[in-house]
Design a protein that fits this description.
Blueprint lengths: L11 E7 L20 E6 L2 E5 L4 H9 L6 E6 L14 H4 L5 E6 L8 H7 L15 E6 L5 E3 L5 E7 L5 E8 L2 E6 L11 H7 L4 E5 L18 H10 L5 E4 L7 H14 L3 E3 L5 E3 L20
Parallel strand pairs: 3-4, 4-5, 5-6, 10-11, 11-12, 12-13
Antiparallel strand pairs: 1-2, 1-14, 2-3, 7-8, 8-9, 9-10
Length: 301
């Protein structure tokens, strides 16, 4: 992967490998924004984090496997199928390269993801168990709201989100920049939520769940997802500099999403809808939004 500009050692870089919600989609009508389910690559300098193991994890592993560290930190927002289905197809897991994959899960009241993943990836639901793969899994549980501190001193802050069975939001502060990933979430009546505003306050980039249109949401209330309008309200209320929408509805075509993006940018010029394989160095000036969104910040490989 190459950025359209040189990344520095203190750069905070995000790359989208899967931006759809619920189920993967394919076909010419979704080619621009992409059809894989959630997977985000985050680089704090040379330090790698991965958020979620949706079907986009497969493409990430194939593209980056030569440069991946031996220890890979995989942070789950939660364990629904669209966020876990890519795990047994992750190249570092299936290639005999000696990788250790550390999973972190914060929505199970302190329990790790191990029991849930062992149930999911076993017959008759899946032909093999994860323990037969030529890698080592180490599972870590925590309670959303706690901070995660890693051996190199990097801290990742977390927050519990409103979603069926819960979900975890993540905040990365690195090199003087702030990135917040808030998905999957349903907005409440007291919006923007004061606690969430404090969590994302001043972020250089907020990645937010905008699965539904305002017209669709009333029929899907309680499903644990939000709208781009609520993302803009949160961003403005918290002084966020830029907003990226993910967890795109599987039935929304490129034509529809481009229209939504134009409407959103009329409200917040530094907002955009994420596209698969976009790379963004968080905190760089947002220019070029009148052309293909985020032209100066994000390119498809």
């Amino acid at each position: 992967m190459t950025l359209p500009y040189p990344a520095k050692d203190d750069a905070l870089v995000l790359r989208f490998w899967g931006v759809r919600g619920s189920t993967p989609v394919s076909g010419p009508e979704t080619a621009e924004f992409g059809g894989n389910t959630p997977c985000l690559e985050i680089r704090c300098g040379d330090r790698l984090f991965v958020i979620d193991a949706g079907s986009g994890l497969n493409a990430f592993g194939r593209s980056c496997r030569e440069s991946l560290p031996q220890d890979i930190d995989l942070l789950f927002s939660h364990l629904h199928l669209d966020h876990t289905a890519g795990l047994p197809f992750f190249k570092p897991a299936v290639m005999n390269c000696g990788h250790t994959i550390h999973t972190y899960c914060g929505n199970l009241d302190g329990a790790s993801a191990q029991d849930a993943l062992d149930r999911l990836f076993s017959p008759p639901l899946f032909p093999v168990t994860l323990d037969v793969l030529p890698c080592t899994f180490k599972h870590h549980g925590f309670k959303a709201g706690e901070s995660l501190t890693f051996a190199d001193g990097i801290r990742v802050d977390t927050i519990l989100l409103d979603h069926p069975q819960g979900s975890t939001g993540y905040r990365f502060d690195y090199g003087g920049k702030r990135l917040c990933v808030i998905s999957d979430i349903e907005h409440g009546t007291n919006w923007p939520d004061p606690e969430l505003c404090r969590f994302v306050e001043g972020a250089d980039l907020l990645v937010y769940d905008g699965m539904f249109t305002e017209g669709e949401y009333p029929c899907c209330k309680g499903w644990g997802h939000s709208t781009w309008q609520k993302g803009v309200e949160l961003a403005k209320g918290a002084g966020v500099k830029a907003l990226g929408i993910i967890h795109l509805h599987p039935a929304h075509s490129d034509v529809q999403l481009r229209k939504v993006e134009a409407e959103m940018q009329a409200e917040m010029p530094t907002a955009f809808i994420a596209r698969e394989r976009q790379s963004i160095e968080v905190g760089r000036p947002l220019i070029g939004l009148a052309e293909p969104p985020m032209l100066a910040l994000a390119r498809r490989a």
